[in-house]
Design brief:
It contains 10 helices and 14 strands. By secondary structure, the protein is of the alpha+beta class. The strands form 4 sheets. Strands 1, 2, 11, 12 and 13 form a 5-stranded mixed β-sheet that branches. A hairpin with a 2-residue loop joins β3 and β4. The protein starts with 12 loop residues before the first helix and ends in a 5-residue tail after the last strand. About 30% of the residues are buried.
Length: about 350
């Protein structure tokens, strides 16, 4: 093992470039609806994708001696998307000293630990991207209020589609409410094909008396519906064939306290009281997560690589002399693009029912 510039823990740049850091997590609920794409021009790709998935506009017949009617491009909010820089760093020197005190010996062992640190930093970047994907699904927009940033990425989802109410009390007409959402979406030119929600919402639907009677008859009132029976009913009656459940959580604000123990906060990716009805296109996807070039991509070793070959997450290292510290950092430029604003219909469970 030969360290870069003979600095302990300074991994050769080519080693980091050989790791793709694939952001798609197998089985992750959000990735079932929002895929990932690497691009060297975030704005141009955003405009191309968004424009391609609008509701088709109609041209008009003209007589041969009449000038063609002029059309307009659909306005797309792109002024904030290149501010989606995600990055995190770790004091590598501090980590190496701790490993040495723990009895770790040899360059090969140290190399594995440093690479694992890089992998973990990349996972933190990818986790933030998944938080953004779920916010798009639960709110129809993305807000970034952290580290001196305060901005909102607006996808053009109408306010009426983001403020629906869903009553899940025991005797509420849940089927009638869902039919209303389906009809509203059809009027906007979208056929709803699925539902993205929490396990708690699905359980409340299974406990709903009106659904129990519709699916199992009057004698089924009070008996918890089977998950399969609810899914079959939603598919047959409303065309909601894709029911996606997300109860995953993530950690944030991770710190070391005075005693040297880790403290952190946890939060759900998707709110427990939300339901997102959606209409998918493009092979069952609602959106694409675009991964662009972070500022570190201007480094010479990255400029020599084809844009399509660059990693989704860039790992860089640098050394400081006073104090003597080696840093490892992961960074990426990320922003999802929604295909069609009419494809999201977001309901909140009414407050009276928790």
């Amino acid at each position: 093992m030969k360290w870069e510039d003979n600095v302990l823990g300074f991994v050769p740049k080519t080693d980091w470039l050989s790791v793709p850091f694939n952001p798609t997590r197998p089985g992750d609920p959000a990735d079932l609806l929002i895929d990932d794409m690497r691009t060297d021009n975030l704005v141009a790709e955003w405009q191309s994708i968004a424009a391609a998935h609008q509701i088709p506009a109609m041209a008009m017949f003209h007589s041969f001696d009449v000038e063609a009617q002029k059309t307009v491009r659909v306005p797309i909010d792109t002024h904030n998307i290149e501010k989606g820089l995600i990055k995190v760093k770790i004091n590598q020197s501090e980590r190496l000293r701790a490993l040495t005190r723990s009895g770790v010996q040899g360059d090969d062992a140290m190399y594995r630990y440093v690479m694992n640190d890089g992998f973990n930093l990349a996972e933190q970047v990818i986790t933030r991207a998944h938080v953004a994907k779920n916010e798009l699904l639960s709110a129809g927009q993305i807000t970034i209020k952290e580290n001196d940033l305060n901005l909102t990425v607006d996808y053009g989802v109408p306010a009426a589609q983001k403020t629906l109410q869903l009553d899940l009390s025991a005797n509420a007409d849940v089927a009638g409410q869902i039919q209303g959402f389906v009809d509203q979406a059809k009027a906007a030119g979208v056929v709803l094909t699925g539902m993205y929600t929490s396990g708690a919402i699905l359980t409340k639907m299974r406990k709903n008396t009106s659904l129990q009677k519709i699916i199992g008859g009057n004698n089924a009132a009070g008996a918890l519906l089977r998950k399969g029976a609810l899914r079959d009913f939603l598919a047959e009656e409303f065309g909601l064939n894709n029911i996606v459940e997300n109860d995953l959580t993530y950690a944030y604000d991770r710190k070391l306290n005075a005693a040297g123990a880790i403290t952190q906060q946890t939060k759900r990716y998707y709110p427990v009281n939300k339901v997102t009805f959606f209409g998918t296109v493009n092979g069952g996807k609602l959106a694409t997560g675009l991964w662009g070039d972070s500022p570190e991509s201007d480094l010479p070793e990255l400029l020599n690589i084809e844009p399509s070959q660059r990693p989704y997450v860039t790992i860089t290292q640098w050394a400081e002399k006073d104090p003597a510290v080696l840093w490892t950092k992961a960074s990426a430029l990320f922003m999802p693009v929604l295909y069609n604003p009419a494809s999201l219909w977001i309901a909140t469970e009414t407050a009276a029912n928790g």
